[in-house]
Automatic annotation (TrEMBL):
Keywords: Transferase. Residues 34-242 form the Aminoglycoside phosphotransferase domain. It comes from the Bacteria. One of its GO terms (molecular function) is transferase activity. It comes from Actinoplanes octamycinicus. The keyword Transferase applies. Residues 1-25 are annotated as: Disordered. It holds the Pfam family APH. The keyword Transferase applies. InterPro entries: Aminoglycoside_PTrfase, CcrZ_PhaseVar_Mediator, Kinase-like_dom_sf. This is Aminoglycoside phosphotransferase. The lineage of its organism: Bacteria, Bacillati, Actinomycetota, Actinomycetes, Micromonosporales.
C-alpha cells in the first residue's frame, strides 16, 4: 500500500473530503516515517505514516499506544486516529508550534516540567510492553558490526560498541528505578507553542533511566550553564546531587555513542565500499546539527552525523569528567575505564 493510498483511506475514515489539503513535512535524516500536515477548514491535523518494511507490528502498536497515552496526559498532541496495521497515526496539530534549536529560559523550564511529568506516567498504563529502544539498539549493533567488519578505517565503530555496552551494563548495575522514557529527545522531537513544550515521535519510547532523557535534552539543545542549572532545578525541584550529576555525565556519553551507532546502521549496505573514504573534516563539533551541506545526500548526511556522534562520545568518555563519574558511582573497571 503506497503512502497516497494510506492517506486517502485515512482521510475517508476521518470524514474529510477531497478539498482537504495535505502537505508533506520536510524529510528527516531517519527513514522510519513520513509526516504530513492535514488541513480541512478549521481542522488541522498531522498524519504520521510509518515505513512498514522497517517496523514490525508489535513495535507499531507500542509506538501508537505511547502516543495515545501521552496525548491523554497532555504531554503530546491528542491522537485522533490510529491504525497500527496500516502504520497510520493522526494527531492534532498544535497551533503556532515549532521546533526550537536555541530555547529561551521559559522554554527550558517548560521542557523540564514536561519531562518530569513524562517520567511520572505509570508504566502499567501501557498494555503493550514497549521494546522499541531495545530492539533498535540490538539491530543497530548487529548491523554496524557487519558493515564495518574488515574495514580498518572504521575501527572506531567496534570500539564505540564496546564502550557503549560497557556503559550500558555498568549503569544498569546501579538499579535505578525505570520510568517511561522518550529516548530520542532532540530538538526535532519537541514542539514549543506560546506557553509550553510538547513531545512528539515515540518510536524509541521504552522504560529506562529517566536521566537518559535529561542528558539528551541538555546536550541536544546546547544549554549553557545558566540554562542547564535552571533545567535541573526545575526537573528535580532542587540542584542535582553528586551521584545524579555523575549519572548524567555517563548517560551523555552513552547517548552520543548510541546515536552514532544507530545512525551508521541506517546506511544501505551498498555504501560499504565508500565509507573508508571519510576524512577528519567530516567530523563536526555539533553532532545534533541535522542540516545537510549543499548538495549532500541524506545517506552522506547520516554518515557524517554518525562520525560526529561517535567521535564526540568516545572523546567524552575518555575525558576526566567521565572518569570521575565512574569513580563516584563505583563503576570503574581497569579493562575499559582505566585503559586510557
Amino acid at each position: 500500500m503506497s503512502a497516497d493510498d494510506r492517506l486517502t483511506g485515512t482521510l475517508e475514515s476521518l470524514g474529510l473530503g477531497p478539498e482537504t489539503g495535505v502537505t508533506p513535512f520536510p524529510d528527516t535524516p531517519t527513514p522510519w516515517a513520513t509526516t504530513y500536515a492535514i488541513t480541512a477548514g478549521a481542522v488541522e491535523l498531522v498524519a504520521r505514516l510509518v515505513t512498514l518494511r522497517l517496523s514490525d507490528a508489535a513495535d507499531i502498536r507500542a509506538e501508537f499506544e505511547v502516543a495515545r497515552l501521552l496525548g491523554e496526559h497532555g504531554l503530546a498532541p491528542e491522537v485522533r486516529h490510529a491504525d497500527p496495521a496500516a502504520g497510520v497515526l493522526v494527531m492534532d496539530r498544535v497551533a503556532d508550534a515549532a521546533n526550537v534549536r536555541a530555547p529561551a529560559l521559559w522554554q527550558v523550564v517548560t521542557l523540564a516540567r514536561t519531562l518530569r511529568r513524562l517520567h511520572a506516567v505509570p508504566l502499567d498504563s501501557l498494555t503493550e510492553t514497549s521494546r522499541l529502544h531495545t530492539r533498535k539498539r540490538i539491530t543497530a549493533s548487529t548491523t554496524v558490526t557487519a558493515l564495518t567488519d574488515g574495514l580498518p578505517r572504521l575501527a572506531i565503530y567496534p570500539e564505540a560498541i564496546e564502550r557503549f555496552e560497557f556503559l550500558r551494563e555498568a549503569l544498569q548495575r546501579l538499579g535505578v528505578p525505570e520510568r517511561l522514557c522518550h529516548h530520542d529527545l532532540n530538538p526535532g522531537n519537541v514542539l514549543f507553542d506560546g506557553s509550553r513544550a510538547w513531545l512528539i515521535d515515540f518510536d524509541h519510547a521504552e522504560a529506562g533511566d529517566p536521566l537518559f532523557d535529561v542528558a539528551t535534552a541538555l546536550l541536544s539543545f546546547g544549554l549553557d550553564e545558566t540554562l542547564r542549572a535552571a533545567f535541573l532545578e526545575t526537573y528535580f525541584g532542587r540542584p542535582a546531587t553528586g551521584p545524579e550529576s555523575a549519572r548524567l555525565e555517563l548517560l551523555t556519553c552513552l547517548m552520543l555513542l548510541r546515536y552514532g551507532i544507530f545512525a551508521l546502521s541506517l546506511l544501505p549496505a551498498g555504501m560499504r565500499d565508500q565509507l573508508s573514504g571519510w576524512t577528519p573534516e567530516m567530523v563536526g563539533d555539533q553532532p545534533f546539527d541535522f542540516a545537510p551541506l549543499d548538495g549532500e545526500s541524506r545517506d552522506w548526511l547520516v554518515f557524517r552525523l554518525s562520525l560526529s556522534f561517535v567521535h564526540a562520545g568516545l572523546a567524552r568518555f575518555a575525558a576526566e569528567p567521565a572518569v570521575r563519574a565512574l569513580e563516584t558511582l563505583g563503576l570503574r573497571e581497569p579493562s575499559l575505564a582505566g585503559a586510557r
